Each structure stands twice: as structure tokens, then as C-alpha cells.
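We emphasize that the prediction below concerns an isolated chain of 494 residues; any contacts that depend on oligomerization or on bound cofactors are therefore not represented. The input was used exactly as deposited, without trimming of termini.
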Amino acid sequence: MEGKRIYPLIGIFLFVLAVRLYLALQAPAFAYEGYAVLRQVDEIAARFWPLYDDPLSYGGRTLVFSPLFSYLLALFARFFPLWWVAKIVPNVFAAVVAIFVYLLLEKVTRHRGVAAFTALVAGLFPLSLVMTTSTLSPHTLALPYLLACLYCFLHVRDEHELMPTLLVMIILYPFIHPSALFLVGGLLFYGLLCHAEGLLPKKTEVELFLFSSLYMVWVVFLLFKKAFLVHGFNVIWQNVPTTILEQYFEPISLLSSFAAIGILPALFGTYVVYKYMFSKGEHYWYLFVGFAFFFFALVSMKLIEPKVGLLYLGTFLFLLCGQFFAWALDYVDKTKFAEQKNAMVAVFLLVFVFSLFIFPRQETDVPSLAQVEALVWLREHTAPQETVLGALELGHPIASIAERPNVWDSSFLLIGAIDQRANDVADIFQTSSEVTAVKLLNKYGATYLVLDALARKHYRVSDLAFVHDAQCFSKVYEKDDVTVYKVLCGVREL
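Result of the prediction step, given as a C-alpha cell string:
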């Protein structure tokens, strides 16, 4: 790769990575769900095999997931401290998004300046920072991997290059995350758009689509076979309890979309989509438009968590913004303002960057210091087999930090009667009846109960109404807004 191309790429990557690491290192903890990944990485690093039979989640259960992301982190964890690996490596993966946005736009716009600026902002837009800096989410790898596949796809289509590379990437993709099916869905929408515009697909494109579709569906089914057999098509909604399903798939407003992606990228990207719907363009723009339509459809039909859908949709809208920028520069060159082009571009770029952050910055939900200290106390002062009940988000940290069995967490697949369990947990926190609370706690074998800000918020309680009997409940820990109770009694069934 020539110097004129490699140096901007290195600079963009390092800048995006530096911003991400600065934000990631501000918080010592990880997102609540990230602790599930942390346990898998630790297990693989120690025993070279994932934790499919988890003795702590739900007090003991079977897990199904794609393991390659955890294996990659575990590879580094063999040589470096796990905390540093978990903070740095996912952000390296996420920063690679900027590299492939640059490469894709350089290929299709032939404008390195447009590619460089778009790559910078695409790697740092608000939702991307929230979703990928301290979350340990597999999407930190799956998203750049998707862009890499599309880059190879365009080369295979146009120059018949990189075919072996693309085939290897397709084979590995479903082992990273089931979002590998996004490649299939996006290519399907791309094919439909090309057909609508009278653009005939090449034989290579059809063959790649058929191979990737059959292979990925087959592998995902094999990896998640147990979940499909138990839940059927409801596996799409991850067996989320109906009482909290609205929280997972809450409707997305226009304002929240602007806050997540940025108002100008959303508007400019949408404008490019509009233009290509009513005028014929090059095939590669229909590829980006097809993926944007695909993710918009997933979000609209509540087939994907809104934040995940907007993360992918936002990335493709930034790619489409690259075309808008190229059009704008060409237009300025044809006007009497061409001599002031540099000044106009500088002002526009400042306004564009400012538009990304005019809304209040969202924060990644991570355990507070008080929560972490309470979980450390549980690890040091309780027996390994004693089960702990807390709010849903606290489930994975209970298993990871406290190293104790939990009553529930956000890994819902393969859990039977999940609605009943969610209702029982709500009853425990909200009931005023000591008998009801003890009976339900005994049902799930819970010995300790954690009341924190999360539980107070979700169940709209300031305190537990049934813990005043010292013979039945003992307040064993209290600091800041976290209180831990020990269950001392039981209810005998007649």
C-alpha cells in the first residue's frame, strides 16, 4: 500500500483509538452485560474451552453463543492482564471501523479527503462510543468485520480480487456472532434494489450470496440449535420476559435517533438514499443503501434491539454521507464561491462535528463503585454455593465479581418459565408480605438479597417492606445506596 494511502489510514486509526481509550479508561468497570463476556474470556484463557455449562448463571444452566470473540480476547489474556485486554482490544476492533469506512469511500468516491473525514466521524459518533467503549460487546468486532466483508465483496465484484480472503471471512463470521446473518440480509436488499433499478447482478455476486446464505444459516442453526428447538422463532426476541420486552425493544423516536447518530449525518445520509431511489447510480451505492434499508427494517419491525440496529444503521448512513460530501464539493467547484472553498469546507466540518454532540451525551451503563464494593464483600463473606438475588442488570456482575450463583441475568435463552421468574422477582421487591417474599426467595434458593439504585428504580420502591423481622432477615451490608440482606428463615410447605 503506497505511502499516500497508508499514512492517513494510520493517523485516522490512531486518533480514533486514542479517543476511545481515553473514554474507556475513565470508567474502571465494564457494562453490566460485559461481565458475561469477561467470565468466558477468563475461562477460555485458563482452560481453553468456553463455559457452556455455567454453574452460576440462574444457579446453573446451559449457554449457547458464538465463541470466537471470546477466544480472541482470551488469546491476549494469556499474555496480558485481563482488565487491560478487556479495555484495549475491543476498542482496537471498534477503531478498525474507521479504516474500512475510509477504504470503502476512497474506492467509491475517489476522494481521499472525503474518505478521511467521514472515517474519523464514523468511528466516533455518539452511539458508537456508548455501545463499544466499555461494553465488551461482540459488535465491537462484528461491525468492522461486516465492513471488511463488503470491502472484499466490492473487490471480488469489480476486479475479481480477494475471493479467497472473502470466503475465509464468510466461513469465520458466524462463529463471531449470529449478526453474521446481517451480511445475508443486507445483500438480499442490495439485490432487490439492483433488480428494481434494472441493474443485473454478476454471476459472482449471485454465487457469493447463495453460498453465504446457505452456509451462515446452517452454522447459526447448529450453534443455536437448542435455542431454536426450545423457543422456535421467538429466539429472535431472545426469550426476553414479556414484562421487560418493551424496555429491550422500545420505540425509537426521531429525536432519539438524531441523538444516537447525529442530526446532520442522519439527514445527509437519508437524502442520499432518497436521491438513489429516484435516479440511477453506481452499483456500490445501492449496496450501502440496501444495508441501510435492511437495518431500518429490522429496527422498525422490532426484530433487533434498537441501539444495535442504530449502531449499524448509523455506520451506513455515514458511508452515504461520504457521497453527499463529494456532491457538495463538486457543486462548490462550479459556483463563484470556488475561491473560498477551503474556508467554507472548514466551517462546514466544524458545524458537522458540532452537530454530532449537541444532544446530551449518553453514558455507558456500568456498575457503580458502591455496587462493585458490595459484590466484593459478598465474594469475601459468603459461601460459594449461596445464591444472590439482585436487579436484572446486576446478574452478570454477581456471577463475575461476587463469583456467586444468581437468580437471573440477561442471558435468557434456554431458560424455562422466564415470565414467571420475572414476575416472581418483581413480587419479591414489591411485596409487603414477609411470607410471600420468603416463599419466593426459597423457591429460587436465594440466600442474599441486594437492594440498590437499579432495584429501586425498576420496582419503584425506596426500601423493602418485609425485612423488619430480625429473625428472618439480617442487614449484613450497607454502604451508600447499596444494602445487602441475608435470608435467615424459610417457609415450610404443608
